[in-house]
Amino acid sequence: MMESRKSVLIVEDELISAEYLKEILVDAGYQVVDIVDNAEAAIRQYKMMTPDLVLMDIMLKGSISGSEAALQIKQYDSEAKIIFLTAYATAEMLDYAVAAEAYGYLMKPYREEEILATIKLLFAHGHEGKDVHIDESIVLKNGYLYDVRKNRLMKDGEEVSLGKTKLRLVEILARNKNTSVSNEQICTFVWGSYRSDETLRSLIYRLRSIIGAEMIKNINGVGYEIVT
Questions:
Q1: Whether the Cβ atoms of residue 32 and residue 24 lie closer than 8 Å to each other
Q2: What whole-number distance in Å separates Cα of residue 149 and Cα of residue 166?
Q3: Is 128's pLDDT higher than 50?
C-alpha cells in the first residue's frame, strides 16, 4: 500500500479500458475520484476535485479532444499533472504533449507494470514535500550506486562522469531496478517525447560502454532494465 493515497481522474471513452485502469490503480493504493468520457466533463471535474493526476485519452467523444482538454486544464492549473493515453504516437500528439507540459504518455493496449512504473516515477520526480521518504541512494551491482538526491552515479565511492542524457537514463532504470522499462517510457523520461528505437539503442550502447554491458539487460519486445 502507498504511503499516501494519490487521487487520479481517468478520462477514457472506452468503458472496459477505463475500468481496467481503475482496477489497477485501486489495487495499487490510488484513489480514483471519477471516470469521465468527454473533455467537457474532464475539465469540469478537474476544477471541482483538483486530482493529483489526470490520465487523459487523446481521442474522446464530443467536439473537444483530450489534447485540447489537457491544454485548458494546464491553463487553469499550471501544476496539473497529466499523462496522455493513446493507441499510437503521432507528431501532432507529441506537439500537444509538449504544449500541455504532459509528463508523458501510455500506449494502448495498457500494461499494468508500465502504468504503475510511469505513475510512480511521476510522483517521485515531481514531489516537493517532506512527508514521503525517498531513498537517498539506490545500490546497483559491480560497486555502482545511484545517488538520488544529488542525481549522480557513483562507482566505488567515486562519481562517474556522465552527460545529462545518460544520467536521465540511469535514473529511470535505477528507480526501477530489476524491472523492465518500456522504450516509450524511457524516451519520454529522457527526452520528453518518443524517439526512434535506433536513437535509444545508441544511448544504451554509449552507457553500456561506460558502466559495462552486463549492467543493462535488453528485454525483447518490452524494453530495458538494470539488473542487480
A1: no
A2: 17
A3: no
Please, which pLDDT band fits residue 126 given cuts at 50, 70 and 90? low
Check: CB of residue 54 under 8 Å from CB of residue 83: yes
- Dihedral angle over CA of 39, 43, 45, 47, nearest 10: 180
User: What are the pLDDT digits (tens) for 144-193?
Assistant: 988 877 788 998 888 999 988 999 899 888 888 888 888 888 888 888 77
Pick the closest to residue 181 from 135, 226, 131 (CA basis): 226
Q: Are 214 and 140 in contact (CB under 8 A)?
A: no
- 201 alpha carbon, distance to own chain's centre: 19
Instruction: State the Cα–Cα distance between residues 83 and 189, nearest whole angstrom.
Output: 12
How far apart (Å, rounded) are the C-alpha atoms in residues 149 and 140?
16
Residues 16 and 20: their CA atoms lie apart, in Å, by: 6
CATH code, residues 137-226: 1.10.10.10
- Of residues 193, 222, 209, the one with CA closest to residue 91: 193
CATH number at 7-126: 3.40.50.2300
Phi, psi of 129 (to 5 degrees): -80, 180
Query: Any idea where the domains of the chain sit in the sequence?
Result: 7-126, 137-226
